[in-house]
């Protein structure tokens, strides 16, 4: 079916309907409604089908974006889903939480010409949700079973992407995770208004139906060492995330109600899942909240605080808006919901008084000085720029560092970088230990979910080659 493309000169960019800020503040539901079918087809038809698709080039997964946009415009949605799923293990997740404004949409050709980008993320979500509704999404069952097995440490996006691919190849796959649910940060770190937990649990059900085994509440290093897993499996993939909060070394940081972002978000997500959680110091209801940081985690925190009923929410960031690492769309959503941003402002101390209960955040106005070796301008304090923000809860969202993998996994021989990440041969993704691979944040440090999916898929391919060579060597040795 032929459909006219390049309609961007006749049709304006149109996102799915967004719930009002007043509505959004009252619950944790996703903020966008679903596209109507005709609307999704029309928006997909805006694609220019350019000869060099920069959207695809700037997608970590190399998604065939122009292809599935054209198929959507032609109402060939099952084919669109199949093309999308061929490069992306979890398109329904990427369609929701990828920072498209920094990746595919930010590099859309028609965006550069001033016509407004194609709504790639929203169409991707529409395709996959339609596929689930129509029953097109089924487990990729192996054509034949193999005798070899793989153990995966971590049930986050990298581990799950690798597990799906390896199980499709016929390997026995066991995923070990220290938490009680599958998904890692997808479950406990990302709020429902960006990613509803049923979306993750739906994929978990598919993985279980495919034959992936999960061992939850199982901490490698406590319940078994890495060496013990190596003895049990033919290959092991370390796909643990990075959860160590970066410290802020200023006076008063140990005061009550000065908390780490992940602790705060995990508490909120667990309550949303119906768990009984001790929330003292981790609930923003009725409090004046200051969040320190400028990344996507900081945006998750400020928007969660709004929904918990905070009396005021302020984000403190030492650089300006143009230099923040988080998504500009997330900032816009937060501003709509009532968050106040203090740009070019850095915390100096936390005022707690004798009670050790937080009363205020003392901060300093900054300006951007000379660029450092990375080319980024360095924030420097302005003379006389001191000010204070009344606060009952301060949330530190300064990013994450790796935990001590070697010690934590009970494998002191595992080589790590000076940043604490697992050292691998980037061609094979294998560590210095034979048969032990690593992927995702464990290797690259805290990064995007889409990169974790990419790394998990690549690691699965490397493990497959390794195991096939290992099986061939064993056959050859047996024949001698």
UniProtKB/TrEMBL annotation:
Pfam families linked: Fer4_20, Pyr_redox_2
Basic and acidic residues bias locations: 11-22
Keywords tagged on the record: 4Fe-4S, Iron, Iron-sulfur, Metal-binding, Oxidoreductase
Chain ranges of the Dihydroprymidine dehydrogenase domain: 25-135
InterPro entries per record: DPD_II, FAD/NAD-bd_sf, FAD/NAD-binding_dom, GltD-like, Helical_ferredxn
MF terms (GO), sorted A to Z: 4 iron, 4 sulfur cluster binding; metal ion binding; oxidoreductase activity
Classification via Gene3D superfamilies: Alpha-helical ferredoxin, FAD/NAD(P)-binding domain
PANTHER family in alphabetical order: GLUTAMATE SYNTHASE [NADPH] SMALL CHAIN, GLUTAMATE SYNTHASE [NADPH] SMALL CHAIN-RELATED
Name the UniProt record assigns to this protein: Oxidoreductase
Origin organism lineage: Bacteria, Pseudomonadati, Pseudomonadota, Alphaproteobacteria, Rhodospirillales
């Amino acid at each position: 079916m032929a459909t006219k493309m390049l309609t961007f000169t006749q049709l304006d960019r149109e996102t799915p309907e967004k719930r009002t800020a007043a509505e959004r503040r009252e619950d944790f539901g996703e903020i966008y409604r679903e596209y109507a079918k005709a609307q999704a087809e029309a928006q997909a038809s805006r694609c220019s089908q350019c000869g060099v698709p920069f959207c695809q080039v700037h997608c970590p997964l190399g998604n065939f974006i122009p292809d599935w946009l054209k198929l959507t415009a032609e109402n060939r949605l099952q084919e669109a889903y199949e093309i999308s799923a061929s490069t992306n293990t979890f398109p329904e997740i990427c369609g929701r939480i990828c920072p498209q404004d920094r990746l595919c949409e930010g590099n859309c050709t028609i965006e550069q010409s001033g016509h407004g980008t194609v709504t790639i993320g929203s169409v991707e979500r529409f395709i996959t949700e339609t596929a689930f509704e129509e029953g097109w999404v089924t487990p990729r069952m192996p054509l034949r079973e193999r005798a070899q097995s793989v153990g995966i440490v971590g049930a986050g996006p990298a581990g799950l992407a690798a597990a799906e691919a390896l199980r499709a190849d016929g390997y026995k796959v066991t995923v070990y995770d220290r938490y009680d649910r599958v998904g890692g940060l997808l479950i406990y770190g990302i709020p429902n208004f960006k990613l509803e937990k049923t979306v993750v649990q739906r994929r978990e059900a598919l993985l279980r139906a495919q034959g992936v085994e999960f061992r939850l509440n199982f901490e490698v290093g406590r319940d078994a060492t890495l060496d013990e897993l190596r003895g049990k499996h033919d290959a092991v993939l370390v796909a643990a995330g990075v959860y160590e909060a970066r410290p802020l070394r200023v006076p008063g940081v140990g005061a009550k109600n000065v908390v780490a972002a992940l602790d705060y978000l995990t508490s909120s997500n667990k309550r949303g899942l119906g768990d009984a959680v001790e929330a003292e110091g981790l609930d923003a209801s009725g409090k004046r909240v200051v969040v320190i940081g400028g990344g996507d985690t900081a945006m998750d925190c400020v928007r969660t605080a709004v929904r918990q009923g905070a009396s005021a929410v302020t984000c403190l960031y030492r650089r300006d808006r143009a230099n923040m690492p988080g998504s500009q769309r997330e900032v816009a959503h937060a501003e709509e919901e009532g968050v106040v941003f203090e740009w070019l402002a850095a915390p100096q101390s936390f005022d707690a008084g004798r009670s050790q209960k937080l009363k205020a955040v003392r901060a300093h106005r900054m300006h951007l000085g000379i660029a450092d070796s990375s080319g980024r301008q360095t924030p420097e304090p302005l003379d006389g720029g001191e000010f204070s923000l009344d606060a009952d809860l301060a949330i530190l969202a300064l990013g994450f560092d790796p935990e001590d993998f070697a010690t934590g996994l009970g494998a002191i021989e595992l080589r790590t970088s000076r940043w604490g990440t697992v050292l691998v041969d980037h061609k094979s993704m294998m560590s210095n230990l034979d048969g032990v691979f690593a992927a995702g944040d464990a290797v690259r440090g805290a990064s995007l979910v889409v990169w974790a999916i990419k790394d998990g898929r690549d690691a699965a391919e490397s493990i497959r080659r390794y195991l096939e060579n290992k099986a061939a060597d064993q056959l050859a040795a047996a024949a001698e």
